[in-house]
């Protein structure tokens, strides 16, 4: 029991550190990416919350899907997600990731991101303004601190569900895991 | 008695040749045994610096002495030769399975061993010349036995330079013989000191020519790359590790035993160093820089290492030429260390070639997962070559730096620093492109080399670390050499060396390095265990990689740097020599057309004329 | 026995102190850069959180060489640290020479290079090749400066060079040989891979170069390595040009000043192309260093 207590506290410390330090990989597929530079630079400056850009998926904690995803890019997105290391979080960005947005009837974009990857939260809007992004990320921070952001766990638990959905649109998917 | 050391290997050479025809492995085994015998009996010779041996020969009224003697310097070179030969012979037992000229290889290799011991034991010009030529010609056969098409051409370039220089050497020796009536070094030294300085200097410069060629000093280094790159893979370690050094041995003989330094002592000096010595040191500096820049450009790993040998020889030349106790000790240290780590590098590369059959670096990659011991040998050797503590290579370079800083030779020091920092670049290139990176599909099933090839590499790794921690072992014999040559000795203990402005304590460095390593290791092992993934599961901007070959950065590794020197490298010295040769041939052609159009009568006329002229000259004199 | 425990304690203390100080400096630098860019910037303690987070994360490895490289990189800098006098703290700096320090630093770089290239990622190779080329650029003027300093003071130990400047602050090499100090400052910026000379870690061009495949504890160890490297390089500069210090507080203060200045310079310039960087180092810093060295040796 003592051991569990130590483990639990250690996990809490790690969660706390994780919520204070988030490196995000902005997967700039869609138009939402244009909102990120102002969020990062002097006007809104997300770095004051400990959120900064990462260069590669190996260094990143947060995968920001900035807009619509064609099936072609979905394949790369999944590959990138699988290259990231747990704990890792996915944030859907803009209405395209929620329900397809203006591409709701397109034949080659996916409509609902969380069928393919475990989305932690969405930031709605077409496109969301920097204020909305910051608000969303602050909520994500709170979720991480409370230990609620467990998408990577969900992905592992329901691996078959996600793989089925992915293969339904993509056909065969090469996997690294 | 000293003749044993020379003639046993030469006699064994023929036995090895005959037996090798029956069994492919016999030759190499005999080479290993003979070298082991040589090494053992040479250790028995240690300390007995009074043994001499001489023969007389009366030829056409001249009395010619052949003198052999042993001294610390020649003992060291003989031991180095024997020791490295054992390792190479062990290595080549297995590696020569598919080698067409295996018998010839062992024949020539043993003759070279014998003749090199002959060279270092020789105390007169004629003996030296005979063994020198023996070594040159046998190594010529060995180089041309390489697999490549270019090997023959490379060997020709080598033999023309070597033979030309050696004949010039013989002329100078005969000139001295006419004056003194003896070929011996001692009488030659007396004569040269007494003679007019200008003439003595000229003579000594001519005498040092074959040594400069053999040591690969700029501007006579052009044979090194092709010869080393194309020689059989088992011979390259010897060629680069030992035969370049024999040139240095010759230069030490010229500088100290033929009193070159004594003769130029009172000439114009720069910072207390006679200008001629400084010029030699500058040649060393230029050698470092050219060797380095050209090494960085190579795509062929053997040629890369050959150029690096050229640049490392520059350090040795600098140290010897500045003639301070520290400089000399540093040079001798570097000479030994270079033998050790360069043979290790060449053996590791030979192992790679043995398995992959190519020397082009961009055709390989990721071999570390297939050949870990070869990688370890290469890594240790390059750490030593780049002069990173705690290996032996750092110590020797450090001593040379100390010598340069002590006297304030700024430009020599800049060259030395340049060569040292840039050596990181060229040693990292094979490491990164051959051993690291993506494993090529055609090399998936490669295995580590057989045990007999591993043993020499393992021994060399241990020696590198041993001398890196206990340089005192080497300093012992070096101080004896210094004493023998009349140079001040350097203070040392088993694991420290006293420099001019600071001491070096290798045991402390080794311990502290281990401590740092342990702290890092503890930190690493307390953290979460990591998951092993394949080489192809790597960041690729989201793209799938299926083709390992196109995801390996190897070709033109240092292109931006090479671009800085493109213009310089285009003006190749080889081209210059080739143009010179072409013009020479053309003018010879003209002469031939004018004089010898092919008529027999003309030749008769010429011979009559020649006879008349000679008679007239004889009569006048 | 007690002596050994004392030594080990000293080892650990200095290591932890330098890691902590290096991380703090990195935090300060991020704050300064943010302020220059009119941002608020992350808190000063952000790097500590980063390291803590990274050690808590999962990580992947590409085989034993990847692990070995990370350990060698960190171990190399920790070993180097013990040869540098930090104020009055000096463990083995009497025995260590400046040249040794330069080469010991190289073993860390070699470890990092080997490990990251061992990941099989070509972007790491590109980064390392750039880093090595740039190293040839900046090490050359630096070694010329060291040559001149050692010749001038006839000692090659860092401690000795520091002692030689004792007395008035006018004895500092910063005032005695200002040109040399300026060159060393430029070299320092290059050594630390700050802005004009950061083409080897260009994040958007080659995916942060050498660290492209490092995540989790590997990145954490490289961050710690970086933090100690910063301390070593700054301490070397302070010892060689600012006369060292009596105690660790003043020493830290001096290091901080140099660090802040270097950060400010670093945030002003765009990035050099790699060959232009080398050309720059060989034209100005090397030229000035040679002139100064000639002045000293004649």
TrEMBL record, chain A:
Record bears the keyword Iron: yes
Regions that span the bilayer: none
Taxonomic superkingdom: Bacteria
Domain NADH:ubiquinone oxidoreductase-like 20kDa subunit per the UniProt entry, residue ranges: 28-140
Stated name of the protein: Membrane bound protein complex subunit mbxJ /NADH dehydrogenase subunit B
A GO MF term: NADH dehydrogenase (ubiquinone) activity
SUPFAM superfamilies, sorted: HydA/Nqo6-like
Family of this protein: Belongs to the complex I 20 kDa subunit family.
Biological-process GO terms, alphabetical: aerobic respiration; electron transport coupled proton transport
GO cellular component, one term: respiratory chain complex I
InterPro entries: NADH_UbQ_OxRdtase-like_20kDa (IPR006137), NADH_UQ_OxRdtase_20Kd_su (IPR006138)
Automatic annotation (TrEMBL), chain B:
The UniProt record lists the keyword ATP-binding: no
Recorded GO CC terms: plasma membrane
Transmembrane domains' residue ranges: 6-21, 28-46, 66-91, 103-122, 128-146, 158-178, 198-223, 235-256, 276-297, 304-323, 335-355, 367-388, 408-428, 449-470, 503-524, 603-620
A matching Pfam family: Proton_antipo_M
Superkingdom of origin organism: Bacteria
GO biological process: ATP synthesis coupled electron transport
Keyword entries, A-Z: Cell membrane, Membrane, Oxidoreductase, Transmembrane, Transmembrane helix
Span of the signal peptide: none
Residue ranges of every copy of the NADH:quinone oxidoreductase/Mrp antiporter transmembrane domain listed in the record: 122-420
Matches recorded under InterPro entries: ComplexI-like_HydComp, NADH_UbQ_OxRdtase, ND/Mrp_TM
UniProt-annotated location(s): Cell membrane; Membrane
Membrane topology per record: Multi-pass membrane protein
Name of this chain's protein: NADH-quinone oxidoreductase subunit M
Organism of derivation: Halanaerobium kushneri
Lineage, opening ranks: Bacteria, Bacillati, Bacillota, Clostridia, Halanaerobiales
UniProtKB/TrEMBL annotation, chain C:
Mode of membrane association: Multi-pass membrane protein
Pfam families: NADHdh (PF00146)
Transmembrane segments: 6-29, 64-84, 96-115, 136-154, 174-193, 223-242, 248-268, 280-297
Keywords: Membrane, Transmembrane, Transmembrane helix
InterPro entries per record: ComplexI_Subunit1, NADH_UbQ_OxRdtase_su1/FPO
Superkingdom, natural source: Bacteria
GO cellular component: plasma membrane
Location of this chain's protein in the cell: Membrane
Principal subcellular localisation of the protein: membrane
PANTHER family per record: FORMATE HYDROGENLYASE SUBUNIT 4 (PTHR43359), FORMATE HYDROGENLYASE SUBUNIT 4-RELATED (PTHR43359:SF1)
Name the record gives this protein: Membrane bound protein complex subunit mbxM
Organism: Halanaerobium kushneri
Lineage, opening ranks: Bacteria, Bacillati, Bacillota, Clostridia, Halanaerobiales
């Amino acid at each position: 029991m003592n051991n569990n207590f130590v483990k639990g506290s250690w996990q809490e410390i790690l969660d706390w550190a994780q919520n204070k330090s988030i490196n995000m990989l902005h997967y700039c597929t869609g138009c939402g990416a244009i909102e990120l530079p102002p969020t990062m630079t002097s006007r809104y400056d997300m770095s004051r919350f400990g959120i900064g850009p990462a260069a590669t998926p190996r260094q990143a904690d947060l995968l920001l899907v900035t807009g619509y995803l064609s099936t072609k890019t979905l394949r790369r997105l999944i590959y990138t997600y699988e290259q990231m290391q747990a704990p890792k979080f996915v944030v859907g960005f803009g209405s395209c990731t929620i329900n397809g947005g203006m591409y709701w009837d397109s034949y080659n974009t996916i409509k609902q991101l969380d069928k393919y990857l475990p989305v932690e939260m969405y930031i709605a809007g077409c496109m969301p303004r920097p204020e909305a992004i910051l608000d969303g990320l602050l909520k994500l921070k709170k979720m991480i601190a409370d230990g609620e952001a467990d998408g990577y766990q969900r992905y592992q638990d329901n691996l078959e569900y996600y793989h089925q959905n992915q293969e339904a649109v993509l056909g065969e998917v090469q996997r690294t895991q | 008695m000293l003749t044993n050391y020379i003639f046993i290997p030469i006699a064994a050479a023929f036995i090895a040749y005959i037996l090798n025809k029956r069994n492919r492995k016999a030759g190499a085994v005999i080479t290993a045994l003979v070298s082991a015998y040589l090494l053992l009996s040479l250790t028995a010779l240690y300390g007995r610096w009074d043994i001499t041996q001489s023969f007389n020969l009366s030829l056409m009224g001249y009395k010619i002495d052949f003198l052999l003697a042993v001294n610390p310097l020649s003992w060291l070179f003989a031991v180095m030769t024997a020791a490295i030969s054992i390792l190479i012979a062990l290595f080549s037992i297995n590696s020569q399975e598919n080698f067409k000229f295996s018998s010839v290889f062992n024949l020539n290799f043993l003759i070279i061993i014998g003749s090199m011991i002959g060279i270092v034991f020789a105390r007169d010009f004629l003996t030296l010349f005979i063994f020198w030529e023996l070594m040159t010609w046998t190594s010529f056969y060995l180089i041309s036995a390489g697999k490549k098409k270019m090997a023959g051409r490379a060997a020709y370039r080598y033999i023309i330079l070597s033979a030309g220089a050696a004949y010039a050497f013989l002329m100078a020796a005969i000139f001295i013989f006419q004056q003194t009536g003896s070929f011996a070094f001692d009488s030659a030294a007396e004569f040269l000191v007494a003679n007019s300085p200008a003439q003595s200097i000229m003579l000594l410069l001519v005498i040092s020519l074959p040594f400069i060629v053999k040591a690969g000093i700029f501007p006579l280094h052009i044979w090194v790359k092709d010869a080393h790159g194309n020689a059989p893979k088992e011979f390259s370690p010897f060629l680069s590790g030992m035969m370049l050094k024999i040139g240095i041995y010759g230069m030490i003989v010229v500088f100290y035993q033929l009193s070159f330094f004594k003769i130029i002592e009172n000439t114009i000096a720069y910072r207390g160093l006679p200008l001629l010595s400084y010029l030699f040191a500058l040649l060393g500096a230029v050698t470092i820089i050219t060797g380095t820049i050209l090494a960085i450009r190579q795509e062929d790993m053997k040629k890369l290492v050959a150029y690096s040998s050229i640049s490392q020889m520059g350090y040795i030349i600098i140290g010897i030429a500045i003639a301070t106790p520290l400089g000399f000790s540093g040079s001798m240290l570097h000479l030994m260390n270079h033998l050790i780590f360069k043979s290790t590098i060449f053996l590791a590369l030979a192992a790679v070639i043995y398995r992959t059959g190519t020397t082009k670096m961009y055709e390989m990659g990721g071999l570390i997962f297939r050949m870990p011991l070869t990688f370890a040998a290469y890594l240790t050797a390059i750490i030593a070559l780049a002069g990173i503590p705690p290996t032996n290579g750092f110590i020797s370079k450090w001593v040379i730096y100390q010598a340069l800083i002590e006297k304030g030779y700024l430009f020599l020091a800049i060259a030395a620093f340049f060569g040292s920092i840039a050596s990181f670049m060229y040693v990292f290139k094979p490491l990164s492109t051959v051993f690291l990176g993506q494993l090529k599909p055609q090399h998936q099933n490669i295995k580590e080399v057989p045990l007999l090839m591993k043993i020499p590499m393992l021994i060399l790794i241990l020696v590198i670390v041993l001398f890196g921690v206990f340089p005192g072992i080497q300093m012992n014999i070096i101080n004896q050499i210094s004493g023998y040559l009349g140079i001040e000795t350097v203070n040392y203990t088993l694991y420290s060396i006293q420099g001019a402005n600071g001491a070096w304590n290798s045991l402390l460095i080794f311990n502290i390095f281990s401590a740092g390593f342990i702290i890092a290791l503890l930190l690493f092992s307390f953290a979460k265990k990591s998951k092993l993934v394949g080489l192809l599961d790597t960041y690729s901007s989201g793209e799938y990689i299926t083709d390992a070959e196109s995801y390996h950065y190897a070709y033109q590794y240092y292109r931006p740097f090479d671009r800085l020197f493109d213009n310089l490298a285009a003006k190749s010295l080889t081209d210059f020599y080739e143009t010179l040769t072409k013009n020479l041939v053309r003018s010879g052609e003209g002469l031939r057309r004018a004089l010898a159009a092919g008529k027999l009568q003309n030749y008769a006329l010429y011979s009559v004329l020649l006879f008349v002229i000679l008679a007239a000259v004889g009569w006048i004199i | 026995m007690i002596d050994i425990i004392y030594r080990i304690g000293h080892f650990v203390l200095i290591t932890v102190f330098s890691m902590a100080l290096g991380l703090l400096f990195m935090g300060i630098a991020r704050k300064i850069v943010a302020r220059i860019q009119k941002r608020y910037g992350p808190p000063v303690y952000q790097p500590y959180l980063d390291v803590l987070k990274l050690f808590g994360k999962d990580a992947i490895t590409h085989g034993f060489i990847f692990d070995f490289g990370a350990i060698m990189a960190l171990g190399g800098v920790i070993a180097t640290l013990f040869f540098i006098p930090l104020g009055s703290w000096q463990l083995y700096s009497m025995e260590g020479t400046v040249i040794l320090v330069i080469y010991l630093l190289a073993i860390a770089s070699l470890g990092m290079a080997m490990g990251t290239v061992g990941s099989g990622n070509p972007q790491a190779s590109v980064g390392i090749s750039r880093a090595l080329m740039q190293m040839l650029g900046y090490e050359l003027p630096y070694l010329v400066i060291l040559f001149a300093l050692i010749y001038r003071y006839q000692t090659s130990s860092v401690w000795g060079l520091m002692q030689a400047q004792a007395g008035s602050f006018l004895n500092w090499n910063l005032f005695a040989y200002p040109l040399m100090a300026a060159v060393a400052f430029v070299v320092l910026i290059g050594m630390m891979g700050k802005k004009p000379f950061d083409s080897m870690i260009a994040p958007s061009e080659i995916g942060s170069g050498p660290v492209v495949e490092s995540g989790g504890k590997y990145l954490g160890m490289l961050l710690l390595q970086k933090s100690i490297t910063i301390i070593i390089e700054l301490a070397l500069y302070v010892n060689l040009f600012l006369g060292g210090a009596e105690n660790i507080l003043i020493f830290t203060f001096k290091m901080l000043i140099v660090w802040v200045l270097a950060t400010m310079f670093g945030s002003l310039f765009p990035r050099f192309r790699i060959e232009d960087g080398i050309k720059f180092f060989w034209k100005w810093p090397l030229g000035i260093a040679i002139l100064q060295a000639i002045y000293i040796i004649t």
